[in-house]
Design goal:
This protein is mainly α and 161 residues long. It contains five helices and no strands. This is Scaffolding protein.
Amino acid sequence: MSDTKPTDTDTQASAGEPECDSVADHTAEQQNETHNEPETPETKPEGRDQRYRARLREAEAQRDTLAETLANTRRAILDQHITAAGYKPSAFADLPVEDVLNDAGLIDADKLAAAVTARVEALGLARQPRRPQVDPLVGGGGDDPGRTSDRAAWDAAFQPR
């Protein structure tokens, strides 16, 4: 170490100039750190491609599942309409669903009625006899004046004697 003190000119020169060496060293260290990082599957181009392929496979599987669900739902709706018309759905199993869809992809009642009529006439199908539907309001005995209600019977059972 020397016994000399720094002069004003030395301090002005060092204060006015940026410390180039330390700044350059710092940026060089940062660059070395980024280049020295091990390549992980996220940073490798091959890893990114594999992730995209996996996502693509998942999306395709989901699409296929949804398409199958849509086809099954359309077939079930078609079978309900055919049953309501009085025919067995199995007689119309080979009827393509696409033939009775409208532009929006929904089942068109007019196209379905025309297809059912054409099939019935071509094959000579007869309607299935349907059993009458049960009406839950009929037979309840609510209008019978001679019959007491259940509420009155319970009230009478718990009245003091």
